[in-house]
Each structure stands twice: as structure tokens, then as C-alpha cells.
Fold this sequence. Notes:
By secondary structure, this protein is mostly beta strands. The protein folds into 2 domains: about 95-190, Immunoglobulin-like (Sandwich); about 190-375, SPRY domain (Jelly Rolls), CATH 2.60.120. The chain has 2 helices and 26 strands. The protein has helices at about 1-40, 75-80, and strands spanning about 40, 65-70, 95-100, 105-110, 115, 120-125, 130-135, 135-140, 145, 150, 155-160, 165-175, 175-190, 205, 210-215, 235, 245-250, 255-260, 280-285, 290-295, 295-300, 310-315, 320-330, 335-345, 355-360, 365-375. InterPro entries: B30.2/SPRY, B30.2/SPRY_sf, Butyrophylin_SPRY, ConA-like_dom_sf, E3_ubiq-ligase_TRIM/RNF, Ig-like_dom, Ig-like_dom_sf, Ig-like_fold.
Amino acid sequence: xxxxxxxxxxxxxxxxxxxxxxxxxxxxxxxxxxxxxxxxxxxxxxxxxxxxxxxxxxxxxxxxxxxxxxxxxxxxxxxxxxxxxxxxxxxxxxxxxxxxxxxxxxxxxxxxxxxxxxxxxxxxxxxxxxxxxxxxxxxxxxxxxxxxxxxxxxxxxxxxxxxxxxxxxxxxxxxxxxxxxxxxxxxxxxxxxxxxxxxxxxxxxxxxxxxxxxxxxxxxxxxxxxxxxxxxxxxxxxxxxxxxxxxxxxxxxxxxxxxxxxxxxxxxxxxxxxxxxxxxxxxxxxxxxxxxxxxxxxxxxxxxxxxxxxxxxxxxxxxxxxxxxxxxxxxxxxxxxxxxxxxxxxxxxxxxxxxxxxxxxxxxxxxxxxxxxxx
Length: 375
């Protein structure tokens, strides 16, 4: 009888144990389903996260396992900064500086006038801008007495107080790098250049106080003169070019713009042609392009006129260079823009150098002096 009661008690204990185990499994299953429905997941703490023993208290929260909604649209770096309700931003992306607006073309400035330069930049963090004039940094809102250049309200001002070539540079820098653009400013005093009627071929007509020459169909009644061109329709300037000179010409049609020694022959074809010998240099211009010529060798220039009919010529006799520029008019009262076309290098002798023009196109083609400067 006793053994039967013991067996019954043992069976009841086993049943109670099974019911307890089953009940716990049901509770765990319900908890798991609830968590899935709510879209919650337990946060996994990294070894380096703030923790105190096995539990954590942050910003007054109760210790325990922190749960947060799973949002796959958030950047992991940003999500980690948003835990526990804290507001933090991601590390700022860096971008190297760039100069978005700066006229790096060459400009001409008469003595006594002032040029203004603007420099707009981009980049992250916002770049700081530094101005340099002839290689020397300029302080903000300060004046460089030696070069007569200063920075005011972010602009660089250069006063044409000394002759020659000035260089200006805009330098932008931030923690991601630097960028810079450079421009040249030619400063000269005004001078007068005119054409010499005694050198003009008879197919050329001079006008506007001998500052303009036009190719015509009828021979002009010029008197005989030993300096007159006989074979080619060309004409030379009256005033000799010394030191450093800059002048601009306005053309119509096909013309040659050049510089020659006074001793160039006036008869024959090759010997008297501008750019066809070792006594002269020329830039042939028309509406389609430019060609540089010296000693009969021609160099095609990839630059196109782009609607411009004006050419700038810069002779630096001490340096032995002769440069040509395409001149584009500036807008809203700004100075004209000079784009480099070609530069000849030569050792100039003491013989007089003169400006000269030649024609190979149609009647009515013309060229005239616009303005000229001299050091």
C-alpha cells in the first residue's frame, strides 16, 4: 500500500515538472513573437562602450538591456550616435578647395588707374583666401605701399603706379588642401603710334590721322620714296619701339600684324614680306584663326578668334620677347580680357624696331591702331 502511494507521488512530481517546463517554453515563445512583431532587437554592447560592471546607467536610465527600433535607412555611424536619445552629428565630409570665379587672363592697365580682382571659392570647410601681389602676401584690409596693392572687403585692388608686368594670385586653403590661380597685369603709360605714309604700298590708303590703313583697288598717288614697299601691300609705323611697349589693333578681314627692323628690304617678295625673313615677325589673322610666321616658317595656332577682331601686341625688348594676345571686351565696365596667342623669342639688336601691317585678302580689309602704351 505504501509503495503504491510513493509511485503516485512520484508521478505527480513528474507531471508538475513537465507542466512547469511547458509553461516556461510557452512564455519564451510568446516573448519572441512579441519582439518580432514590435520590430525590436536587443542592443549588443561592444567591449569599448560605456558600462559599469555587468549593467549600465546612462543619462539617468534604469540599468538593463536597452532596446531600439531597427531602422535600416539610417547610416550605422549616425545610428550609433543616436542611442539613448543623444543627438550627435556625423563627422563633416571634407572637400578640397576650388576657385570658382577668378579672371586669370592678362589685363592692361594705364598708369594711374586701378584694377579690381574678385576671387570666389568652394570647399568644405569653407576655405580662407589669401592674396599675393608679385609674390608677396597682402594683409586683409591692409595696403602694400611698395606695390600699391591692397585688399578691401575681400577684393584685391592694384593701382597702376609702376611700369611693367604685375602678377596677382588668389590662394584658397582649408584642411583638405590648397588651390590657386594667377593673372598678369601689364601697366604702361600711353604713347602715340602712327603709320608712315612714305612706307605705304600704293594699294593702301591711310586715314584717321595715319592711324588706319585700308586695302583699296586703285593705286594711290604716293610720291616715289626709297622706303616705300613696291611688291607687297604693306606699311610700317613711324615711331620706333623701345624698351617695353604694348599696343592694340582693330582688324577687318585678313591682315598680318607684325614687328620688323627698319632695314627690311622694300622690294622683292620673300625678302620684303613680314615674317618671311629673319628681320621680321608676324601674326596672320582672319576670322578663322591665327598663324605665326618667322623666317618663312609658319606655326598654326589652335586658339580661335571667337568673334574678337582686336589683337594686343607686347614687345619686351630687354627680355627678347614679342607676344600677341586676343583681346575680348570686358562687360559692365570691367577691363578687357587678354588671351595669349603666341610669343616669339629673339635677341634683338640695336637697330630700330617698327610695327608693321600686311594684307593678302580682299579690298576693304583694314587695320588700325586702337591704343598704345609704353614704358
